[in-house]
Amino acid sequence: MSRKIALPLLVGNMFQQLYNMVDSIVVGRFVGSTALVSIILASRTPQPIIEELPPEEADAPTALLTQTEEVGDQTVTLRVYEPDEAGYARYALFGADGAEIDIPFGVNRGTWIGNGNAAEKVSLTARDDVLGFPGFELETIQGIVMTVCDFYALTEQGFVYAGRTVGYDFDDAAEGDGAWPLDLTGDGRSELITRSTFGDGMSCVFVYRWNAAEGGSQRSEVDWDKADAQLARLSEPLGVTARAETYHAQDNTVTLTLYTESGTKETTLPLSTDILGEWFAED
Question: SS3 for 40?
Fold first, then answer.
């Protein structure tokens, strides 16, 4: 730095220090110590106070939808988070203690929302009877029109996954896709009967039951050989193209429909455990 520049700066700095010293003496002697402290604090550049959030809160996504339901003596909270760049939003369930409830098929379950309303894509509904326990139903729209309903039961072990149904037209009062509690075995505990329609348009009836020994849900379906051996034997010679099952809640019957190249054949019979196949654990 040249002397022409440095010398004026040095002199100016000396005068500034002298001014501050004289100012402090005058204020401190004639005005008081309180005013002196105020001037000193005012002369300092205020620093912003930055409160850092804990890492888990700082990284937490924004919830678009929060819904809470009373289930038995517990509460369940559904949270739907803001969608990613592709329009998919993750959703999660939480118990009263704030712990996340396991969701089957992966904890990062999501549904496509795009620019739509999260409440129209994901919803939570309390149910009085899920496998004989109070429970709830988590309904999501996967894709554009496919509805998926997952059921949970509040057991002695806490919330346990009970089963699911998928389809396009959910109406428990009609003969479309849905879920119905009914005691099929007569033991005083209801099973959960569901009808699902898959992507090929064909429907299937599933039955879920509570296995107390294993502490979990089990799933079975109609065994056509047990239900109607003659209809089952017709499958191969008639060149079956598809088959469907329809549950009628009003009289607890199931209709088995066989679509063949030569026409349609069907039979309706009571739904009981006698026509169900093997039971599998619903993990």
Answer: helix
Q: Do the Cβ atoms of 167 and 177 come closer than 8 Å? A: yes
pLDDT per residue over 157-213, tens digit each?
889 999 999 887 665 545 567 899 999 988 899 999 999 887 767 889 999 999 999
The 10 Å CB-count burial string (b at 16+, else e) for 149-166 is bbbbbbbeeebbbbbbbb
216 vs 162: CA distance, rounded Å: 8
Q: What are 165-170's contacts with CB under 8 Å, separation 24+?
A: 165/194, 165/195, 165/196, 165/206, 166/142, 166/196, 166/197, 166/198, 167/195, 167/196, 167/197, 167/203, 168/197, 169/197, 170/139
**Cβ neighbours for 279, distance < 8 A, ≥ 6 positions apart:** 209, 211, 218, 219, 220
Model confidence, pTM: 0.72
- CA pair distance 241, 262, nearest whole angstrom: 10
Q: Which token pair is 12?
A: 């100016």
* CA dist., res. 55 & res. 91, Å (int): 21
Paired tokens of 227: 């239900």
